[in-house]
Amino acid sequence: MADVVGTQAGAGVAEAAERVSALFARIQDSLIGWRDAILGEESTDSGTAPAAIDATVGALVIPLLREDDPLLVGAGFIAAPEFTGGDDLHFSWWLGPLEENPVFGSTTEPSRLDLASRSYSDYLRDFRSLEWYSIPQTTHRTHITGPYVDHLCACDYIVTVTSPVERDGRMIGVVGVDVYVKRLERELLPAMLAAGRPVVLVNEAGRAMVSTDPAVLVGDVVATAEDAVRCAGTPFRLV
What we know:
This protein has helices at residues 2-39, 50-65, 81-84, 131-139, 181-193, and strands spanning 74-79, 90-95, 111-112, 143-150, 156-167, 170-180, 200-202, 208-211, 229-230, 237-238. By secondary structure, the protein is α+β, with helices and mostly antiparallel strands.
């Protein structure tokens, strides 16, 4: 009987891993489409006009942020200065409706991220050193940052998925999304609970993202056992 229960639990964890993989594959597919749309913009020697970038990116991401119960809390494109022909930051980034938080209150419609209104955003002037930009630039691959507390907008735990946009071997920016960890929980907990035993989704560094064990909180470091199940297409494992 114990062998049967163990086999069922193992199958349940494998199904949960497939659910994680499918969710992040969906995000990756969106990023690929956005990248191709941005690369389709006409460019000139002086760079691509920021207004053209904004129009393209807004048309791509705003409908997703307006969905009922949207998966994303933020999305867009962050341009390398070389792409726009200048040294200024250019964030074509939109925020979905924000839940009540102590800094910004709440919103009911998508809004453009206004860095000028966030006096503590100066650190973004060196954004190319930040993980969500520097790792895609180095690896030329999609990267998942987090979980971490986003103090810029959401004031809550999020994960950020970014993918490099490259032209002729040169990095011109990243496309990306932000997702609340609590939104990931709604997506993933049903499958994880069905595994029939406590399961924790951990990132590459072993930090907990989603857990069915109430003693394990987001961000906790979890020892990774040999039987941890990898979630294909992601750096995550189910422990």
